[in-house]
Design a protein that fits this description.
single chain, about 210 residues, mainly alpha, 11 helices
Length: about 210
């Protein structure tokens, strides 16, 4: 099994991102340095789009850093390059490109767009529970084939705009929660847990989930 499949298999479980050592190592590699960061996967417009997306989702507030402050965009870039299969990369990029083209319009540079412009297109395509994804309804996924899934011979389908944005959302929240600064200084943290506490989360931790 190659590294890409290994990362995916141990990092994903029942629809959730699992904080395995390999996934954490991807995140820890996204450190700020003296040299300007150069994306390994995202192109210029994609980087601008993703960077705005993560900060709209998790903006900087008093006492809390924004997602871009914690290099979440770097993690997403690394994840897409290291974990997504080449066909997945191509299909995901195609969907991202459609949203970027619509957002960009007649502008020469995506940086000319305001935060409200980015919020507008995200609100347009990121559906809430109960809303129907018309793109997926018009193009249903092929039937799930368990044999192909086990062997790794998946039939990849192009994600809808809603699916692409929700995947970015899911990865962004996971990366933010795993960040050392958030895990140790914001969330309840016990490096050597010795007791089992059972009770109301609001009373035990002020409503905060425990750090991994």
């Amino acid at each position: 099994m190659d590294r890409r499949k290994a990362l995916k298999n141990i990092g994903l479980a029942t629809g959730f991102m699992v904080a395995t050592p390999s996934m954490i190592s991807l995140l820890q590699g996204c450190k700020s340095g003296s040299e300007k960061w150069v994306p390994a996967f995202l192109n210029t417009d994609e980087e601008v789009f993703v960077n705005n997306f993560v900060d709209i989702l998790l903006p900087k507030t008093e006492g809390l850093p924004g997602a871009s402050d914690l290099n979440v965009t770097q993690f997403l870039d690394t994840f897409m390059k290291e974990v997504l299969a080449p066909e997945e990369q191509k299909l995901f990029r195609g969907t991202l490109s459609e949203m970027i083209s619509e957002l960009k319009g007649e502008a020469k540079d995506l940086n000319e767009k305001t935060p409200d412009d980015f919020k507008s297109i995200i609100d347009k395509y990121m559906l809430v529970k109960g809303e129907i994804d018309e793109e997926r309804k018009a193009n249903p996924r092929p039937p799930y084939n368990e044999a192909n899934a086990i062997s790794g011979n998946f039939v990849y389908t192009k994600p809808t705009k809603n699916e692409a944005l929700n995947h970015l959302k899911w990865l962004t929240i996971s990366a933010y929660r795993w960040n050392e600064q958030i895990g140790e200084n914001v969330m309840p943290y016990d490096p050597i847990p010795a007791t089992y506490e059972c009770g109301d989360l609001q009373e035990l931790t002020g409503g905060k989930a425990w750090s991994i």
